[in-house]
Amino acid sequence: MENFTYYNPTRIIFGKGTEESVGAEVKKHGTKVLVHHYGEEFVKKSGLLDRVFKSLKDEGLEIFELTGVQPNPRLSLVKEGIKFVKEKKIDFILALGGGSVIDSSKAIAIGVPYIGDVWDFFSGKAEVKETLPVGVILTLPAAGSESSGSSVITNEDGWYKRSIDGVDAIRPKFAIMNPELTFSLPAYQTASGGCDIMSHVMERYFSVTRYVDLTDKLCEGIMKTVIKNLPIVLEEPENYNARAEIMWAGSIAHNDMAGTGRMPAWECHKIEHEIGGIYDVAHGAGVAAVMPSWMRYVYKERIEMFIKYAVRVWDVEYNFDEPERAALEGIKKTERFFKGTGMPVTLKELDKSIAEDRFEEIAAKCVEGGPVGWFRPVNKQDIINILKMAGTG
Amino acid sequence: MENFTYYNPTRIIFGKGTEESVGAEVKKHGTKVLVHHYGEEFVKKSGLLDRVFKSLKDEGLEIFELTGVQPNPRLSLVKEGIKFVKEKKIDFILALGGGSVIDSSKAIAIGVPYIGDVWDFFSGKAEVKETLPVGVILTLPAAGSESSGSSVITNEDGWYKRSIDGVDAIRPKFAIMNPELTFSLPAYQTASGGCDIMSHVMERYFSVTRYVDLTDKLCEGIMKTVIKNLPIVLEEPENYNARAEIMWAGSIAHNDMAGTGRMPAWECHKIEHEIGGIYDVAHGAGVAAVMPSWMRYVYKERIEMFIKYAVRVWDVEYNFDEPERAALEGIKKTERFFKGTGMPVTLKELDKSIAEDRFEEIAAKCVEGGPVGWFRPVNKQDIINILKMAGTG
Fold it and tell me: How sure is the predictor about B393, in pLDDT bands with cuts at 50, 70 and 90?
């Protein structure tokens, strides 16, 4: 086991009706609140926005609004937000939405007290020292950003999708999580979110660190929970308990608990970030399209990890004569699971326009700072090879 | 799944050599620090106390010491500590030890800013509003107190062992956890600690709440980790990785994550508290002596939970003809496990002086506030019945 520090002070407020406590939660930290959201019809029609505004007003808070967040949230809106927050002297940012809104909120929050360009944090030129407080009402379980120390932003200038990770200061003050708010999520978003959750655990699970029994088990437990409940919510969108499992799994998958004491992988996320930056695909779908190919490309590197994954997560019987068969069976089962939820498992299925002649560019952008990932660091040629495998499956 | 809130802001600093960061951690919160510990030879001989003092001095902190903590920590020492801390204007309490020292430290910390008798918090007369900050260097993995919102104190006046639970304000600011510091723990304390850890999970696992897949899995993962690694550390006391698994399992077992969204049980802890208060036995051993009998007494109440436990935690094959057999096999395996680690599984084995003529008194004290526990609340007669079953096995 590796040495580690773990610190996650996000207050989780989970369950039915919890969004009505938002005013009281915000009031602990601020007085002028920016409600940052997609601006989609759902939050208005469903009455959610009204309920949130009422709760904030009941506590005497002054409300501002900034909408227009897109999937793969953009730097331009972040900059607009920073300007607006400074002008209005806003002191709290409430993210109402999923990972994109939360990441955009975090980026605004760190940009406000910073004198330079907020992109400096994402390009590795600056470290976060100060931030406005951020709170979350989660409507899309996927990114785990509601209690993570991460934010991923896309810079339209060059279409770079870059992240800051492991920064405790940007963990939200609170995350309000009502599974009922996810009942109306479309199947594609639900499935993409579920695959994103799976991938957050898998990127931690496939590790070069040995002797990490407890976190192996935590990871396996989270994955098995998603494997059981994601098909249920796709068939029964209003199944509260199954939605609740997915929602809580999404947080635990990325709150860093399941990664304590072990080196992670993150190769697939790094590759997907380049694809997502250029082609603007749903993140979970992008990961689903790349991951099985990545697994096939690297599994021999530490085959016992892939056998363990097959046996414990997918209930594949250990093959004493040909253990490798078990490893490959686990990969196949992963692929079938993604596919069964409606996700793409090849780049072609992800987006027809992702052509082989861009693989070179994607790979080059990905390794600008050297080989990426920690399970089996991949260089430019590795990435091209993986993308070729993912091309058509 | 039940609604829940989860908030655990303890900073975990885990691994080799981490005690050397204690000065820097304390300095974030205070300047005059009380080092509260058992005063046993080990901390001096091993050089641990010197290293801790050096780290504190290097940060310019003023050091005070209060030793003499006993297992089942006493109210009298807590009161002495409160007086001392007030006199010396100490502003931080560093617990160096296991659950007893940490619980004693927490009790001192809440007693200092309180005008009345600190026992008020434990007798349910007062709620914690304010507290001095507490930090921990853990030397005995068991109680999980290093990041929990609990403290258990024994009042010598009547030998009442009482707890405060779920109070976020008393969660320590940090917990430094170096598995190497547990290498020299005697086998009995190691095993007792391991059983305490198991019991913290079991008290959450046996729940009346249905549809709690994720926390089922977290609980099962923690238990399986202890079941695998406790025998290893008993045979190889200096096995770093196995010690590390037990140490981290001890925290996660009781940091409340594994109990999110589900009603807990806690019947056995309530019963053990009375036994521990009167007979001063090691807590983990006391729980081991009571738990199998409690399980046999209540398993029919929600038998599917006990079958699940047998199948998933103990790898008992599901018995389609007689499912009850699987449930009973799980209980037997638990008992054999406790016994195999050198723990008592009857009251006789726990302490020969625990005689049947005291069962009435133990039960009466336990239910002074009404039936206890949430899995299958037990009244006075239930407790007497369980104690009789636990009497000789």
Answer: low
> Of A381, A308, A352, A349, whose CA–CA distance to A195 is shortest?
A349
Q: Which chain B residue shows the shortest CA-CA distance from A213?
A: B225
In this complex, do B213 and A225 lie within 8 Å of one another by their Cβ atoms?
Answer: yes
Assess contact for B189 and B168: CB atoms under 8 A: no
C-alpha closest to that of A155 among A39, A267, A276: A276
Band the pLDDT of B262: cuts 50, 70, 90. very high
Q: State how far the Cα of B192 lies from the Cα of B178, in Å rounded to an integer.
A: 19
Select the residue of A11, A221, A249 nearest B221 (Cβ to Cβ).
A221
Bridge partners, residue B34, by sequence: B64, B93
**How is residue B372 written in tokens?**
């206890």
CB contact under 8 A, A214 and B222: yes
Instruction: Tell me the C-alpha distance between A163 and B275, whole Å.
Output: 54
- Same domain, yes or no, for A204 and A331? yes
Please state the separation of Cα B67 from the chain's center in Å: 20
Q: Do A213 and B220 touch (CB under 8 A)?
A: no
Type of residue at A336: R
Q: Whose CA is closest to A229, among B212, B311, B315?
A: B212
**Tokens representing B89?**
């204007």
B114-150: pLDDT as tens digits = 999 999 999 999 999 999 999 999 999 999 999 999 9
Q: Does B231 touch chain A (CB under 8 A)?
A: no
| Whether residue B221 is found in the same domain as residue B332 | yes
Residues A110 and A219 in one domain: no
CATH number of the domain bearing residue B316: 1.20.1090.10
Question: Which residues fall within 8 angstroms of residue B6, CB to CB, at 6 or more apart?
Answer: A11, A12, A14, B256, B257, B260
Q: What is the DSSP letter of B257?
A: G
Residue-wise burial string across A16-46, b where 16 or more C-beta atoms lie within 10 A, e elsewhere: eebbeebbebbbebbeebbbbbbeeeebeee
How far is Cα of residue A82 from the mean position of the Cα atoms in its chain? 23
Between CA B160 and CA A169 the distance in angstroms is 42
Domain termination residue (choose one: B181, B202, B219): B181
Q: What is the DSSP string of A363-390?
A: HHHHTTTSSB-SSS-B-HHHHHHHHHHH
User: What distance in Å separates the CA atoms of residue A268 and residue A294, rounded to the nearest whole number?
Assistant: 7
Domain count, chain B: 2
Min Cα–Cα distance to chain A from B84, Å: 31
Which residue range forms the structural domain that includes residue B155?
11-181
Of the residues B166, B181, B196, the one at which a domain ends? B181
Angle of helix B187-205 relative to helix B283-298, nearest 10 degrees, comes to 40
- Here the ipTM equals 0.95
Do A204 and A256 touch, CB atoms closer than 8 A? Answer: no
Q: Express each pLDDT in A131-174 by its tens digit.
A: 999 999 999 999 999 999 999 999 999 999 999 999 999 999 99
Phi, psi of A70 (to 5 degrees): -110, 160
Write out residues in chain A with pLDDT < 70, as ranges: 393
